[in-house]
Amino acid sequence: MNAVLQPNDYTAYPDAEGRFGDYGGRYVPETLMPLVHELDAAYSAAKADPSFQAELNGYLTHYVGRPSPLYFAERLTEHFGGAKIYFKRDELNHTGAHKINNCMGQILLARRMGKTRIIAETGAGQHGVASATVCARFGYPCVVYMGSLDVERQKPNVFRMNLLGAEVRPVTAGTGTLKDAMNEAMRDWVTNVHDTYYIIGTAAGPHPYPAMVRDFQSVIGTEARAQILDREGRLPDAVVACIGGGSNAIGLFHPFLADEGVRLVGVEAAGHGLSSGMHAASLTGGRPGVLHGNKTYLLQDDDGQIIDAHSISAGLDYPGIGPEHAWLHDVGRATYVSSTDEDALDAFQLCSRLEGIIPALEPAHALARVGEIARDVGKGGIVLMNLCGRGDKDIFTVADHLGARL
Amino acid sequence: MTTPRIDARFAALKADHRAAFVPYIMAGDPDEATTLAILRGLPSAGADLIELGFPFSDPMAEGVPIQKAAQRALKSGMRLHKTLALVRAFREQDQATPIILMGYLNNVLTYGYETFAHNAAEAGVDGLIVVDCPPEESAPLADALDAAGVSLIRLATPTSDDARLKVIAARTSGFVYYVSVAGVTGQKEADETAVAPMVERVRQASGLPVAVGFGIRTPERAEAVARVADAVVVGSALVDELAKALDENQSPSERVLALAKRLAEAVRSARVPVSA
């Protein structure tokens, strides 16, 4: 591998071509290229428009419920016996996860662009629910593509989307998980390119999606940074988030990129274990390739065929990762570790019992690594984790694994 | 860049005053032997050029027929290096019919651009279509293919305006592939009255022959499009025919070649050849 150039300013990316180093880009069928350019121009204009930002902030405050609290997890801190542990409570957002931050931004952009139909893909269903929610609020027809396996394991979210007026289309192609849902959403987009806006749920896809989703999610890190300075008078030693595609993690990391003393730790899903071959850890177990419009780390075989990811968490069950994480990994600004299904189940129960917070299985993966990070940082230090979703949606999955019958 | 086999074939078709018939099949669908039998039979069935798909696990621009073909091919163990081996075997008997490979970037990227370009040229590949590699991303691949003498065939679409056509035409050779419908393969139907002016615009912008594909399923549609295009590509209909033959326990190669023959005849009947 070539030596990776250390950037002077981590926040200056992507470049005009949508690249974070060698990652990112716009690898889409030609039919979509004019639209991708149009979206780039429309987003750049909106980003620079104070009235767009003011409207977005208004909805984030009064509809989403921002800012979310920063909570000192006192009993977990005692339990682990290391640094103070803080949770950024993005599970308290309307719809129960961080996904709504991005959907609110994108629906306002879709409206600004004059689009009349919304599509989205979803894994766990959180992004699908958030998309269906903003479509209901702003009066748009909404089609959500969801892998048939995920439809099965996330029934409550499917019903929620239906209640919100969205049509959920189960995708049976491939393994019926998030990557297949994303393929199908791309096929819909290329077919209905004239009127349809595609709300991608993670910081991946063709430029400008990785940068745009990051920007909309950066409200997490911007708030958290100000809140910890207010509470503790100093920056944290480490910030931690789980990673599927990586939208909550990049939203937390990005406002800390220039704070070189703050460790950024992403936690991938190791499924049955990295050596089992049944995991979703693209950075740890994959290599660079091109899928879904961007160049990034992918789980793939020696012919470049994508290998199915596995995780107990439907939201992390994706064989790729956002391109900015791929770059932060290569340049060493962020470090990436992983948690298994079992680790996440243990952390899920621990958090429920010690803090009275039932986390989603996704942030339970992050929490499973927080103990050792807190001990490594040591007493007197601060570790801040994004609790990006609540666990109501996961109780059936967890009950099943614990042998309980509901 | 010139590509001898493609250029010679289109020159001969022009002299013959007719459009080319370009069948598409998926390598390894359902196995290598069937693909080789079809490849070897296609020129005498009336194929002027051949598009050979190489399978990808996540083909985001394909409709259900070609998605399923890719799954059958992957299940049979088809891989990009084996696709090149099929072309090499075809070339043992046919030196004239251009072969265009079609697929997705990740397989070519994984193979390595330089190695792939070199091995493809050596196997007898004339051109490459990469569905998810627009001009903005194609410079490294185009460099490698140019050096090996393989054409990178560009795609134009109904969403391409004049400025976009210039970008598409900037670095292309052989021919331009006009995707006649906004959508995935084998779903919507191409309309020759809408296609004709676009074909002309693409010809003007590129100075190259224009092949029309995506949305041509029947001999009637093939004949209609052949009146206005330089080449007519049929894929999903042939792939469907193969799938039906498998379902009905018949010979896939015979069924595919029989349909190819009907399509080729329809293309040839579209324009009256100018007698020498």
Shape of chain A: globular
Outline type of chain B: globular
Question: Taking strands numbered 1, 2, ... along the chain, how are they ordered across the largest sheet of chain A?
Answer: 3-4-14-9-10-13
Q: How many helical elements of chain A?
A: 16
Query: Given the structure, what is the number of helices of chain B?
Result: 12
Largest interface between protein chains, with number of residues from each side: A-B, 36 and 44 residues
User: What is the ordering of alpha helices and beta strands of chain B?
Assistant: HEHEHHEHHEHEEHEHEHEHH
Order of helices and strands of chain A: EEHHEHEHEHEHHEHEHHEHEHEEHEHHEH
C-alpha end-to-end distance of chain B: 30 Å
CATH architecture of chain B: Alpha-Beta Barrel
Poorly predicted runs of chain B are none
Uncertain residue segments of chain A:
none
Mean pLDDT of chain B: 95
The major β-sheet of chain A equals: 6 strands, mixed
CATH level 3 topology of chain B:
TIM Barrel
Strand percentage of chain B: 5-15%
What would the keywords be for this entry?
heterodimer; A: 406 residues; alpha/beta; 6-stranded mixed beta sheet; 16 helices; globular; B: 276 residues; TIM Barrel; 9-stranded parallel beta sheet; 9 strands
